[in-house]
Amino acid sequence: MFRKLLIANRGEIAVRIIRACRDLGISPIAVYSTVDRNALHVQLADEAYFIGEAPAAQSYLVGEKIIAAAQQSGAEAIHPGYGFLSERAWFARAVEEAGLIFVGPSPDSIELMGSKTNAREAAIKAGAPVVPGTANKLANTAEALVTAIDVGYPVMLKASAGGGGKGMRIVRTAEEMQSAFENASAEAQASFGDPSVYIEKYIERPRHIEIQIVADKYGNTIHLGERECSIQRRHQKVIEECPSPLNDPVLRANMGAAAVKIAKAASYYSVGTLEFLVDANRNFYFLEMNTRLQVEHPVTELVTGIDLVREQIRIAAGHELVIRQEDVQWQGHAVECRVYAEDPEKNFLPSPGKITKLRTPSGPGVRDDSGVYEGWEVPLFYDPMISKLATYGATREEAINRMQRALREYYVGGIRTTIPFFQEVLNDAEFRSGEIDTGFIARYFERRPTPPKGDATSDLTDLEIVAALVAAYDFLQQQQSPPTIATQPPSKWKAVGRNIAFTNR
Ligand code: MV4
Q1: Running DSSP on this structure, what letter comes out for residue 128?
Q2: Range name among 36-45, 60-69, 205-214, 456-465 with the lowest pLDDT average
């Protein structure tokens, strides 16, 4: 096993990897940029190396500096976390050429699965179901129209070099094709420097369900079940859960088997996630593969009891996978909320700044994977996620109720966070029903009354505006799920003047 491991990342995932190192008796080595000198991951590591100025392009994305730090520290391995260089084949190659171990898949696997069209081909070869359509690039609108007739409307145009929803257009009739094709190509060119698009059958109101797999370097490949990731805002996951509310063992076995087949066909090793769309009839279609540890890995850990980061490091060190597929069990339910330094009342505008007060939740079934502390200055240079709050219960309802308890305890002073947004969503009847799909957030915002418009309040004092908003919030709470008296949260309006400080706006 490694003596020293360098973490080429920051924030909560760097802290998470440090903890796995501690559990394995490995000495964790941190890297940091100017603004991260006093960051939590730097404080918790055994050694820390400065790698450059705040902008990621001058620090966390500079492979050479990271490798140099590893060589200087004597680390045998580098863990990329997620984001940054975690899915750059050239970086994995450079690490291996420097004689170090990259804690992740082979560079070839990263390369293969990094192209949506190659990944789709690999899935087809492995006999896994993919979304009906053609992966080849469409030359022009005419070719798109011909292909759409084969596939059958509605279809979805997608950027060949893309992902994350950029360059995607739904086309319901032939008349819409011309403008959709031009717009999708233009957006693809702008976003990825490659205008090519392809066509798929549009899956109406799909669930976004992903399968976690773990594979060692000797061909042992298992799946750890699914995560429901349909609660997304602008193609960013915000709430994830395990298992899916569908909680269908046959679907789990079939999707898991398909995921394992694709991974084996690609000679994949390390942890990895295969994303699927699931339609209303529980047909599933392979979308793409993520060749990294994912943000939402904790919900799988909570329900299976398996430490994914520990397994990933053991695999990188050449250990065989000791867990067999028949050993994997799913017990209970876990939900995760991604806590961002963003203001939900200002269209999720980033809210960097100093955390002047931090009260984190705890107690039965609560896990807070945090990268911050009271007094920490949340920088504006990086992804604004400050922590992930996960809760565990015997049932989905218990996990959700515990999440509500945890969110009430969670107070972050000095900056705005998405905590109040989650408090509302978890109260929402459609969310609580589990009948969710990728359109949930769009529908949620459509039905959520927005606070009074500017002109209606221009002649009100600030306190009157606060009172109006608090009353509106209380009204909304009552509307969503009229609580019994016992669970009725104290009205914030009644609290005005009382000393119940530290409640999130
Ligand atoms: C789809 C789809 C429906 N039909 N493809 C979104 C980004 C990337 N992960 C692929 N995505 C989708 N591809 C077909 N053929 C639905 C999604 C999708 C989605 C689409 C719109 C809004 C939010 C979404 C969230 C997850 C998946």
Answers
A1: -
A2: 456-465
pLDDT value at position 348? 96
pLDDT, position 117: 77
Sign of the alpha-carbon torsion through 93, 98, 99, 103:
negative
What is the per-residue pLDDT for 340? 98
Q: Taking 50 as the threshold, does the pLDDT of residue 173 lie above it? A: yes
- The whole-model pTM stands at 0.89
Ligand 1 atom nearest residue 232's Cα = 25
Regarding the beta carbon of 235 and ligand 1, being less than 6 Å apart is answered: yes
Beta-strand runs (E) in 357-426: 357-359, 366-370, 377-378, 385-393, 411-413
Q: Are residues 144 and 281 in the same domain?
A: no
Q: Does 385 score more than 70 pLDDT?
A: yes
Nearest CA to ligand 1 atom 10: 165
State mean pLDDT over 294-323: 98
Active site residue 172: no
Identify whether residues 323 and 398 lie together within a single domain.
Answer: yes
From the candidates 10, 233, 292, 314, give the one annotated as an active-site residue: 292
412 in Cβ contact with 358 (< 8 Å) = yes
Distance 165 CA to ligand 1 centre (A): 6
Last residue in a domain, options 168, 201, 234: 201
Q: What is the pLDDT of residues 200-237, one digit of tens each?
A: 999 999 999 999 999 999 999 999 999 999 999 999 99
pLDDT for 337 beyond 90? yes
Which residues make Cβ contacts (< 8 Å) with residue 127, sequence separation at least 6? Answer: 261
The helix/strand/coil state of 266 is: coil
* Alpha-carbon 14 to chain mean position: 15
Query: What does the mean pLDDT of the chain come to?
Result: 92
- Residue 73, token pair as written in the block: 């520290």
Measure the CA–CA gap between 63 and 94, rounded to whole angstroms.
8
Confidence of residue 448 (pLDDT cuts 50, 70, 90): confident
Q: Where are the beta strands (DSSP E) in 341-417?
A: 342-343, 349-350, 353-354, 357-359, 366-370, 377-378, 385-393, 411-413
Q: Is the CB of 438 under 6 A from ligand 1?
A: yes
In this predicted structure, what is the pLDDT of residue 486? Answer: 40
The domain of 29 spans 4-103+490-497
Q: Which residues of 312-339 are buried (b: 16+ CB within 10 A; e: fewer)?
A: bbbbbbeeebeeeeeebebebbbbbbbb
Backbone angles phi, psi at 150, to 5 degrees: -60, -50
Per this entry, what is the length of the chain? Answer: 505
CATH of the domain at 326: 3.30.470.20
CA distance linking residue 277 with residue 202, whole number of Å: 10
Three-class secondary structure of residue 471 per DSSP: helix
